[in-house]
């Protein structure tokens, strides 16, 4: 066991607490010690609730001593993106508008993790209303990348990526509508799972786009993500879009090798105009897949620019509709970039929006046909590693949307198709910036991409690198 | 389908109940234009009987083979 409990993985620390090799208080204190050291540099936490967390840890230890283990994550301290409603608590959604919003119910995903025994460290920073891919926030300041403090974390789950990477929390909920889990996972060197649309209930999660929103975890390993998904997935009366049926044993899937699986490499788009170091990491990852027994073949995907365009049209309209009241009543309370992006949705007619929605089925069918011979597709999350905070601070400048689109060009098509995608730490630049790649799976087949991700992590150690303060 | 003009944006935003000024309309036209261009080859070509719910059908019956 590591001398610093906060450095353990989620599954390892849960097991250690369950076996009473370590107490929840020791684990929680270890996280708090790291938070005290890192938070001034990262700005990853929105709110820290140290005293409450220690009290909850003591209660968890006392319950365990009496044989009262609440669930598989008993006594494990976590913090989540500040958009998951928890009854009686302020949930800011990274905004000024909701600075004092007190939730009257608890989100299903959060409740299921609480039922599994987790305790709360506080809440994590995010892009305002989850509408930004870099980690900037006009109201609460930017979140910093633990591997290079002058660089962005990616967003919108900026605090989640930063805090998991710095080992301040063992895992964190994020959300992914256009890349908001995979971008911070890529930039911060952690594992992030965008789930299939419909896999995890969105009840009590702040909405951005009802067609594209997904709930998912960021954690240190694919195995950790598998455990969290297994706890959160499944039908929910509060969200009819969450599919019914048995939840697969994702954790069991991660024990398998990738031998015999076929992984596709796109012949175009995802391999075009890559930063040379991202391209090099993609090649090296493919070599690992082959060494581990996977069959790697090229796949010709349908035109991804069409998917990206449709994705943007759907997102822009749905986001503008959710925000219409505040766009009328409180436009001055948005940050300039988020206001600008919300206004984009005002330019799109109802007919165009519905056309973009109607095409989703045929577009997915075309993707299924193109990938019929592969179990998953490997692709970069973004063409570049994390830019600096200064160079990506475009605000509402005329080129802002172009900058955003370049960063997210490899994530948006996947959101439109509703597919699951796992971002895995796959290498580092010469300057020490993490590079993540995404494994895109079939609808509702998170198990296979988690299996490949876990096998990759047994063969590599990129996910184990711990950032150091300068 | 081409990117919307400033004039069209002024009209659509007004119809949506959130009118914008000319400067904002110009900015929106530049900002959202590439999305329209990306979708241009699809717009106006979809078959009559295609419903948005087809996505769920494909997702649950074909994609999760």
Detail the topology: elements first, then pairings:
The complex is a heterodimer of chains A (470) and B (65).
Chain A: H1 10-18, H2 24-42, E1 45-48, H3 50-65, E2 77-81, H4 108-115, E3 119-124, H5 158-165, E4 171-175, H6 182-188, E5 191-194, E6 215-219, H7 222-232, H8 250-253, E7 262-266, H9 276-291, E8 295-299, H10 304-322, H11 324-329, H12 336-344, H13 350-358, H14 360-370, E9 376-380, H15 400-407, H16 412-417, E10 421-428, E11 434-440, H17 446-459
Parallel strand pairs in A: 2-3, 7-8, 7-9
Antiparallel strand pairs in A: 1-3, 4-6, 5-6, 5-10, 9-11, 10-11
Chain B: H1 6-16, H2 22-39, H3 54-63
Helix pairs in contact in B: 1-2
Give a concise summary.
Chain A has 470 residues and is an alpha/beta fold. Chain A has helices at residues 10-18, 24-42, 50-65, 108-115, 158-165, 182-188, 222-232, 250-253, 276-291, 304-322, 324-329, 336-344, 350-358, 360-370, 400-407, 412-417, 446-459; strands at residues 45-48, 77-81, 119-124, 171-175, 191-194, 215-219, 262-266, 295-299, 376-380, 421-428, 434-440.
Structure write-up:
The complex is a heterodimer of chains A (470) and B (65). Chain A is α/β, with parallel strands linked by helices. Chain A is 38% helix and 13% strand. Chain A is built from 17 helices and eleven strands. In chain A, strand 7, helix 9 (276-291) and strand 8 (295-299) form a beta-alpha-beta unit. In chain A, helix 7 (222-232) runs antiparallel to helix 17 (446-459). Helices cover 60% and strands 0% of the residues of chain B. Chain B has three helices and no strands. In chain B, helix 1 crosses helix 2. Chain B starts with 5 loop residues before the first helix and ends with a helix. The model of chain B has no long low-confidence stretch (mean pLDDT 90). The chains are: A alpha/beta (470), B mainly alpha (65). Chains A and B meet through helix 10, helix 11, helix 12, helix 13 and helix 14 of A and helix 1, helix 2 and helix 3 of B.
């Amino acid at each position: 066991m590591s001398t610093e409990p906060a450095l353990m993985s989620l599954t390892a620390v849960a097991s250690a607490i369950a076996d009473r090799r370590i107490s929840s208080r020791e684990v929680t204190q270890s996280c708090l010690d790291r938070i005290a050291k890192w938070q001034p540099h990262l700005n990853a936490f929105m709110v820290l609730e140290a005293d409450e967390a220690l009290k909850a840890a003591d209660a968890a230890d006392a319950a365990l001593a009496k044989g009262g283990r609440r669930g598989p994550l008993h006594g494990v301290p976590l913090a989540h993106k500040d958009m998951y409603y928890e009854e009686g608590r302020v949930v800011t959604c990274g905004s000024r508008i909701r600075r004092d919003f007190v939730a009257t119910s608890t989100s299903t995903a959060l409740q299921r993790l609480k039922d599994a025994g987790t305790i709360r460290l506080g809440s994590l920073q995010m892009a305002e209303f989850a509408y930004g891919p870099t980690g900037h926030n006009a109201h609460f300041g930017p979140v910093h990348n633990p591997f290079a403090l002058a660089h962005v974390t990616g967003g919108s789950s900026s605090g989640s990526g930063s805090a998991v990477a710095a080992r301040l929390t063992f895992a964190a909920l994020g959300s992914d509508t256009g890349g908001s889990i995979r971008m911070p996972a890529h930039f911060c060197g952690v594992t992030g799972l965008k789930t299939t649309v419909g896999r995890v209930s969105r009840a009590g999660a702040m909405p951005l786009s009802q067609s594209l929103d997904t709930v998912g975890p960021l954690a240190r390993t694919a195995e950790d993500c598998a455990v969290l998904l297994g706890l959160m997935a499944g039908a929910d009366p509060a969200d009819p879009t969450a599919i019914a049926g048995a939840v697969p044993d994702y954790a069991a899937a991660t024990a398998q090798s990738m031998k015999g699986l076929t992984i596709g490499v796109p012949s175009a788009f995802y391999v075009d105009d890559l930063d040379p170091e991202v391209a090099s990491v993609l090649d090296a990852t493919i070599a690992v897949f082959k060494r581990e027994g996977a069959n790697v073949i090229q796949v010709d995907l349908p035109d991804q620019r069409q998917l990206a365009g449709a994705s943007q049209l759907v997102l822009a309209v749905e986001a503008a509709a959710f925000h219409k009241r505040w766009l009328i009543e409180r436009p001055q309370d948005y940050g300039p970039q988020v206001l600008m992006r919300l206004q984009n949705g005002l330019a799109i007619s109802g007919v165009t929006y519905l056309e973009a929605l109607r095409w989703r089925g045929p577009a997915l069918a075309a993707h299924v046909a193109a990938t019929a011979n592969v179990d998953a597709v490997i692709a970069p999350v973004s063409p570049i590693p994390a830019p600096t905070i200064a160079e990506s601070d475009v605000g509402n400048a005329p080129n802002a949307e172009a900058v955003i689109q370049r960063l997210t060009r490899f994530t948006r098509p996947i959101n439109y198709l509703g597919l699951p995608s796992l971002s895995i730490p796959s290498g580092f630049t010469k300057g020490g910036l993490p590079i993540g790649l995404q494994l895109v799976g079939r609808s509702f087949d998170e198990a296979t991409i988690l299996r490949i991700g876990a096998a990759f992590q047994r063969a590599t150690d990129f996910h184990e690198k711990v950032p150091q303060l300068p | 389908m081409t990117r919307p003009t400033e004039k069209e944006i002024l009209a659509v935003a007004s119809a949506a109940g959130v009118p914008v000024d000319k400067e904002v309309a110009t900015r929106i036209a530049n900002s959202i234009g590439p999305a329209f261009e990306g979708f241009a080859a699809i717009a106006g070509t979809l078959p009559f009987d295609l419903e948005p719910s087809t996505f769920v059908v494909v997702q649950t019956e074909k994609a999760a083979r």
